[in-house]
Amino acid sequence: MNKSIIPFDRTAKLLHWMSAIVILWATTSGLYIAFFELESTIKNHILNFNVSITTVFIPLFCWRIYHRIKRGVPQAHPAMSSLEIKLAHAGHTLLYVLVSLVLVSGVLMMGHDVKVFQLFTIPQLLEDKRTIHFFEALHLYTCRLLALLVICHLAALIKHEIMGKRILKRMI
Length: 172
Fold this sequence. Notes:
Layout: H1 10-35, H2 40-71, H3 82-108, E1 114-116, E2 120-122, H4 129-162
Antiparallel strand pairs: 1-2
C-alpha cells in the first residue's frame, strides 16, 4: 500500500462495516415491505427483526460517532481533488445526520412497547397520536433520503475505484 494513503483504524473499520450491514439490511427490507405485498406474518417477522437489530445498533452507532469525534478522519486520499474532499465530507456528515434521525424517529414512532429479540422490552415512549404520526412521517422521509444517499455513496466509491483511486483500501 502506498505510504501516503492512510487507512482508517481497526475500530473505525469494524464500526463502518457493522453499520453498513445494518443500514443496508434495514433499508432494503424496509423498502421491500413498503413497496410489495407480503403475507402479514412474514411482514411482521421482518419488521420485528428490523426493530430489534436497529435498537441494538443504536449504542454501536453512538460509539461510531464518539470514535469519529475522538480520533478524527485520516487525511483524504491523495488522488482526490479539493472539491471531491469537500463533497465526501458533506456526504459523510449527512449520512451521520440521517442515520441519527432514522434511529431516533424509529424509536419515537413506536405506538407500542418494543420487544428486542424477545430478550427485553422497551416501553412505549410517546402516547400522543399526533406526535407519533409526526415521527412516523419523519422516519419514512429520512429512510428514503438515507437510501438515496447510500446509493450516492456507493456510486462515488465505484467511480473512484474504476478511475483507479482505490479509496476502498482505506476501509478494508
